[in-house]
Write a structure and sequence with these properties.
Elements lengths: L11 H19 L12 H18 L6 H4 L1 H13 L47
Helix pairs in contact: 2-4
Length: 131
């Protein structure tokens, strides 16, 4: 029995592929600096990488009914890593599975906002026109 379909939802396959490529490039960038030492990493880079793994794990939690339980050790390990590195804890999730506050990253030039779908507002006539 095959659990997953052959074709992913629109954009999922492309984004997963891009995330895998980005992870490979990150690994290639870090390895030359390593030598048993934490070289190459900055606080912001470590926070961004941890957030990437956490967000990916949250996305994978919807892949199977037990996936959230299976992935719990990933979140525990990342929480411990954040403590060891004196990084801020991960964003808390609300009942809907969305962060309680919008996610932000250390780079002030960019901010990640959680997209929430809302119903469209009723159409309004342009200002200055009579109804």
């Amino acid at each position: 029995m095959e659990l997953l379909p052959t074709i992913a939802a629109p954009g999922v396959g492309e984004r997963a592929d891009a995330a895998a490529d980005a992870a490979c490039h990150l690994y290639d960038a870090v390895v030359p600096w390593s030598g048993g030492e934490p070289g190459g990493w900055s606080r912001t880079a470590a926070e961004d990488a941890a957030e990437t793994i956490e967000t990916t794990a949250h996305a994978l939690a919807h892949i199977h009914p037990r996936a959230e339980v299976i992935l719990a050790p990933v979140h525990a390990a990342l929480a411990d890593l954040r403590r060891q590195l004196a990084l801020a804890p991960a964003d808390l999730l609300g009942a809907e599975g969305l962060p309680v506050v919008p996610r932000t990253v250390g780079n002030p030039r960019r901010t990640r906002w959680v997209r929430v779908l809302t119903p469209p507002s009723p159409r309004q006539p342009p200002p200055g026109t009579a109804s």
